[in-house]
Automatic annotation (TrEMBL):
This is ADP-ribosylglycohydrolase family protein. Keywords: Hydrolase. Belongs to the ADP-ribosylglycohydrolase family. SUPFAM superfamilies: ADP-ribosylglycohydrolase (SSF101478). InterPro entries: ADP-ribosylglycohydrolase, Ribosyl_crysJ1, Ribosyl_crysJ1_sf.
Amino acid sequence: MTRSPDHFSGCLLGLASGDALGAPYEGGFMERALWRAIGRTRDGEARWTDDTRMSLDLAESLLARGELDQADLARRFADGYAWSRGYGQGTARILKRIQRGQDWQSASTSVFSQGSYGNGAAMRAPVVALFYVHDLAAMLRATVDSARVTHSHPLGIGGAVLIAVATYALLHQRTTADTLALLSDHCSDPRLVSKLAFFECFSDSGTLAHAPRSIAVRLGNGMTAETSCFTAIYLALRFRHAPFDDMMAFAIACGGDVDTIAAMAGAMWGAANGASKLPVFLLEQRAYIQQIAQLLCEAGKAAQRGIQAS
Ligand code: R7I
Ligand code: MG
Ligand code: MG
Ligand code: MG
């Protein structure tokens, strides 16, 4: 089944919207004060952060190379780095090393010896789901490969796979039960499996009304994949038939790594509902993001024609 172009735009614009609308609430007093100073462009548009920058880098790499090319991706991540986007500390150090000429393989384990378990690979994983929307096996391989460039820790990779799979399922308009079943098929790390068990509540519709605080405590609101990906999936599934702004308000109330949790949830929500349902506000590079989403959609259609012809 070919997904509508509106759902591709919805996914990428949902990611950027969640990022830009969540960024003012990320971090402590100092980070919020800084974002008040640099959180708008000269034209008054809401700026997005590293989450969207790295997602666009990944999309541009996939479109240019026609496949996941780790060396090309590492170079684009390094070229795209700017301190004012609020990169994770480990990722910032890795990208500066790559800028100085170090190879990505050794750079990626130079900060954390097993590689990062931050949510930085998960936050860009929706892009892989868009590009490989017609080929789940290829999507899974590309998600792992794309994560490894900066996040080679099993939890960093595992979180990326969960977000890619959930985005894929919502893009295909799978039911919540089917989405959870697919997630369960692609979740093997015991630390992640135990958190996925929380979602058994979705089969019991009476327990959907968790308070933000309870979600922040039980699923997390941190910067690691393990403490943010499930919260994002919860948001997308709970609010998939509700307004984006309601989901955003819940994400802000959860606190913590709001830009990233809202970026991941926004990508999944947008994949399910399309761009036409997203709030309209002054967003940095909105037209360009939409254009990239359409190119991903076209690339997917071309790939599908190739699959059908062979
Ligand atoms: O994962 P990453 O790119 O961070 C993304 C976050 C998002 O919230 C963005 O919006 C941006 O603000 O940053 O960055 P990393 O630095 O790789 O990981 C994030 C954090 O997780 C690190 O700064 C550490 O605090 C923690 N972390 C680890 N701590 C100890 N040992 C990640 N991996 C490790 C580890 O192996
Ligand atoms: Mg960010
Ligand atoms: Mg930050
Ligand atoms: Mg963040």
